[in-house]
Structure formats: C-alpha cells, structure tokens
TrEMBL record:
Name of the featured protein: Isochorismatase-like domain-containing protein
Disordered: annotated span: 110-165
Ranges where the Isochorismatase-like domain occurs: 163-214
Organism from which the protein derives: Trichoderma gamsii
Family: Belongs to the isochorismatase family.
PANTHER family assigned to the protein according to its UniProt record, in alphabetical order: ISOCHORISMATASE HYDROLASE, PEROXYUREIDOACRYLATE/UREIDOACRYLATE AMIDOHYDROLASE-RELATED
GO molecular function: hydrolase activity
This protein's UniProt keywords: Hydrolase
Compositional bias segments (type: Low complexity): 114-136
InterPro entries recorded: Isochorismatase-like_dom (IPR000868), Isochorismatase-like_hydrls (IPR050272), Isochorismatase-like_sf (IPR036380)
C-alpha cells in the first residue's frame, strides 16, 4: 500500500485533541560536526519554530482539554562518547556559545523549560519548578504514569507546563522503545500524528516506520488492518480508512451508512519533510541523504512540508474531505 495521497496532496488536518505534533531529538548536540559531512535543510530551525508556534497559538481560543498535543522527545544516550550525553558541552549555540548537547535547540524549547525570566531558556538538564510534571525530563516516568499524568491538566500555576505539552526521554533511536509514547497516544486517543525532528535517517525514520506498524496492528489510533480486500483508501482528516466498496467524496455528501464497511481503520501519520534534518555520510551529500530517506518514507506516512501543514490545520466543521487512492 502506498500511504501518501495522489499528487502529494495533504488533506485538511484537525487541530484538536486527537492530533499530536512529535518533535524528535531537536537538541544542541546535533550541531556537533562528528555526525557527518555537513547538515541538510538550513531552514530546519525556522520550520520547527513555525510548527510549534502554530500549535501553541490554539491555546488562545481553544479549551485546554481540546488542544492538540505537542510531544518533545529528548535523547539522553547511554554512550558517553555521544555529543548528546548529559553533561557534555560544545560550541553549539546559534553564535557559537557553549551549550550542553542534551538541551533543546532554541527553536524547540518546551514551555516547561522556560523560566520566569524570558531572556534565557532554562537548561533541560536543570529541572524547573515544574520538574514533578510529566513534561519534565527528570525523573523519567513509566508508560502508565506518564500517560495518566499527561491526560490531566496540572494545577493552576503559570510556572508549570500546559497539559498539552510534554517531554518524553529516549535512550536510543526509537522514540517508542522504553518510553511512554505508545501509551500516551492511546490515552489521549490520538488519531493524527505529525512527525518532525533529527536525524531524518535514524530516529525520525525509525519512528515513522514504528508508528505505521503500530497503527496497522491496531495498537493505537483504531483497529488497524482488518482484511486484505479493500477498494478505496480515504481520510476524513483524522484517521485513514480502507473501504470495501466505492463511495464518492470531494464536494459530494457521503452518508455514514456508506462509511462503515471498513477493511482498514488506522491512525493518520504525517511526516513533515522540511521539519527534519540529517547529515552527509560515506561521501554522500547531506541533502541527498535527506531526500532519499524522506522519499522512502512515502510508503509509511503522508509526506508534506511545513507550509502545507500550517495551511491545512483547521478547527471547524468546514472540511469533511474524502480523499481517495
């Protein structure tokens, strides 16, 4: 099954509690030259900043329990030679300032890390007053603890993180391995997962593929794959469905009776290609590595860009779009 829609079209994306933006390993340590010969996508920081700002903007008009979720995945590797190993520093700031590699890049500092003074983001390795919430990097919660805490708004304290912005700690390239991510997606009933971060060919690729497998297996976001014979794949903006018979969509009304005979009912996975970054290796240019891996992930996710995601996010009932393969 080719997951992406024809012509690169991205159907509208609901900006509600069923949608999550996952930012993977957006940390200073990935500015270390040891990762490879140059970095791809010079607009990475600008694009990720725009995505996070768009998601945060809904807090002005949306009830807290209806807000889309922002998940920051922070890598704390076990290997002491990694530039992201906690305590390691380097000239990773925007102007070459000394920064701890494990900390979040300027473009993606979680709200939980912002101190009372707006002049300088707090270090993610130095817990703030909100360190007891799920969004704090320390201590790491178990899957059950994290998902239950994330589902409940924190007490009314402006120094705490909002309930729709959380941090999960990773030890390796899979954001699902030994983290609360899967249980968090299920607890929050996430049906649409948008993915961005670093590196495109490691953690991002691994997470996209794992997301697809879990969604197809019915582990989160719906029953997943049900049977082989379906004729039409479509989306209503949130989930992805395989219909056993042909139904018409677009500008035409589609009755609920036409949309119950599913062979596939799974979560929608969206890779934001220009919201990722990777590095040159083996003599291959970083931009080539980037393009090859993003294109390969077309089989596991919708692949689109930052501008399209921001344009297609919506919060009303104007869109009931049925896009077909």
């Amino acid at each position: 099954m080719q997951y992406s829609w024809p012509g690169g079209y991205c159907p509208p994306i609901p900006a509600w509690r069923s949608t999550a933006l996952l930012i993977i390993h957006s940390q200073y340590g990935y500015r270390d030259p040891s990762w490879g010969d140059g970095a791809s996508n010079p607009d990475y920081e600008k694009n990720v900043s725009s995505l996070i700002a768009k998601f945060r903007s809904y807090a002005e008009t949306t009830p807290e329990d209806e807000l889309p979720l922002i998940i920051h995945a922070q890598l704390k590797p076990i290997w002491a030679n990694s530039p992201l190993y906690p305590g390691k520093t380097g000239p990773y700031g925007a102007n070459g300032e000394e920064k701890e590699g494990v900390d979040f890049l300027e473009c993606s500092v979680p709200l939980v890390n912002e101190p009372s003074s707006p002049s300088e983001p707090a270090s993610s390795s130095e817990p703030t007053a909100s360190s007891d919430s799920v969004a704090s990097p320390e201590p790491t919660c178990t899957g059950t603890q994290a998902s239950e805490l994330a589902a409940s708004p924190p007490p009314g304290n402006s120094s705490r993180s909002p309930s729709n912005e959380v941090i999960i700690t990773c030890r390796g390239p899979s954001v699902f391995s030994n983290t609360p991510l899967e249980s968090l997606l299920k607890k929050r009933n996430i049906r649409t997962l948008l993915i961005a971060g670093i590196p495109t060919d490691h953690a991002v690729s691994t997470t996209v593929r794992s997301s697809y497998d879990l969604a197809m297996d019915g582990r989160w976001g719906g029953p997943g794959y049900i049977e082989d014979t379906f004729k039409w794949l479509h989306t209503d903006g949130a989930g992805v469905y395989g219909q056993k018979k042909h139904v018409f969509g677009g500008n035409q009304e589609v009755s609920q009776e036409d949309l119950v005979d599913y062979a596939v009912d799974m979560a929608r996975i969206i890779l934001i290609g220009d919201g990722t970054r990777c590095f040159g290796k083996g003599g291959v240019d970083a931009e080539v590595v980037h393009r090859v891996h993003v294109e390969s992930l077309n089989a596991f996710a919708e692949v689109t860009n930052t501008a399209t995601v921001i344009r297609q996010l919506y919060q009303d009932e104007r869109w009931k779009t049925w896009t077909f393969l």
